[in-house]
Design brief:
O-acetyltransferase activity; disordered N terminus; 13 strands; alpha/beta; 7-stranded mixed sheet; 4-stranded mixed sheet
Length: about 400
């Protein structure tokens, strides 16, 4: 009887041990399979991410076409941007056709990344992103602020102006990040440096003087420069010396040459003062104007007023964009690269050339009362230089975003 009980107990013990060993074997198998799956998934994700980065790095982001996209564009609503500029708020000032907000730039060989405001703010944590230049660069700055500010609670964002209004600073408190704009329309010092009273009859530049401006952006982590529009005249006064100095030397210098002189001063300053391990540098190419409709097949004497469609001719280039000045920029940046300093050119000219319908035209705040003659002929006061927001400058910032994260 006792022996029979021992056999039963032994069988029972063996059964329990067998079940336990089976469970352990099943668990081990599950863990191995899971590990293999996770590893494969991780490798696949890594490969996809690497492949995406590689395809982006090999892709010409500036060669492509505009695709109508009313599902993912616009990237923000004009009315919901706290810091929208009345110069660029076309819907607010009566524009009814809003299709200009729904165009997405599609490079021929890849896709641009979707703009992620939180990711950008995280990248900017404890950093300064500073736009430096003229009103077109200010428009790009407003666009960038509009793109990110909806991701920041109202109590944790602020805007202030310093340096007599020359420097505007948007701050995301939680990230200790700032997105700033500094008014320097010619980059070097000029008699157009006042952020409000800059419309002067005879423009004068100190082509060798940049230190006063540069003091406001020296320690920035990302710098985005532009300058072109204010150079568009046959010649300009160049001053060697200080404004008001009776011993100053003035000389009249033709457009392309004086432009190059100023950019050489700018590039020399960058070479000496920029921390190559810290600062990312960008230069935005010329922003095209659409002031002569006959250039794209419209009536002579018309401009961007009433335009609602894009220019479909691939490679279209208006006379407002000057290739010789583009070559100056390219040569200066190439020279800097040879000296060990990389400045990425954001070549927005060609892609923006197609967007004749993207300007404010008459749909903006008028800073001075319109005359009866102007009111009778809106063509005469249509703004075909700046851009409506949301609109074309948002794409410039998506391109900037792609390069910031490419590093």
């Amino acid at each position: 009887m006792a022996k029979a009980q021992q056999i039963v107990v032994a069988k029972s013990t063996w059964g329990i041990r067998n079940i336990f060993q089976s469970l352990v074997a099943i668990l081990k198998t599950t863990l191995v399979v899971t590990a293999i799956y996770v590893t494969q998934e991780g490798e696949q994700w890594s490969q996809e991410r690497t492949s995406s980065t590689e395809s982006l790095s090999k892709c010409n982001l500036f060669s492509g076409k505009w695709v109508f996209d009313n599902k993912s564009y616009p990237l923000y609503k004009e009315q919901q941007c706290t810091f929208m500029s009345d110069q660029l708020a076309c819907e607010k000032f009566g524009r009814k056709d809003l299709s200009y907000q729904n165009w997405r730039w599609k490079p021929h060989q890849c896709d641009l990344p979707r703009f992620n405001a939180t990711a950008l703010l995280e990248r900017l944590r404890n950093k300064r992103l500073v736009f430096v230049g003229d009103s077109l660069n200010r428009g790009q700055w407003v666009s960038m602020v509009c793109l990110v500010e909806s991701s920041v609670p109202p109590t944790l964002k602020s805007m202030r102006a310093v340096a007599n209004g020359s420097l505007s600073i948007f701050k995301a408190e939680e990230y200790n990040a700032t997105i700033e704009f500094y008014w320097a329309p010619l980059l070097v010092e000029s008699n157009s440096d006042d952020p409000v009273n800059h419309k002067v009859q005879d423009r004068t530049v100190r082509v060798q003087a940049i230190k006063k401006h540069a003091g406001f952006w020296t320690d920035a982590d990302i710098l985005v420069f532009n300058t072109f529009l204010w150079w568009r005249r046959r010649a300009m006064n160049v001053l060697w010396g200080s404004f008001g100095d009776p011993n100053g030397v003035y000389k009249r210098v033709r457009m392309v040459r004086v432009y190059e002189m100023a950019l050489r001063t700018w590039s020399d300053w960058l070479e000496v003062h920029i921390n190559r391990n810290k600062t990312q540098l960008f230069f935005v190419s010329m922003s095209p104007t659409h002031q002569k409709a006959h250039e794209w097949g419209g009536a002579r004497g018309d401009n961007c007023y009433k335009e609602t469609d894009l220019i479909q001719e691939e490679g279209y280039w208006g006379n407002g964009s000057i290739p010789s000045m583009m070559r100056v920029v390219e040569n200066v940046l190439e020279d800097l690269k040879g000296r060990g300093l990389k400045v990425q050119l954001l070549n927005i000219t060609q892609l923006s050339e197609y967007r004749k319908e993207g300007h404010p035209s008459i749909y903006r705040k008028q800073w001075e009362p319109l005359t009866e003659e102007q009111l009778s002929n809106p063509n005469t006061y249509a703004d075909c230089i700046h851009w409506c927001l949301p609109g074309v400058p948002d794409t410039w910032n998506v391109l900037l975003y792609a390069y910031i994260f490419r590093r």
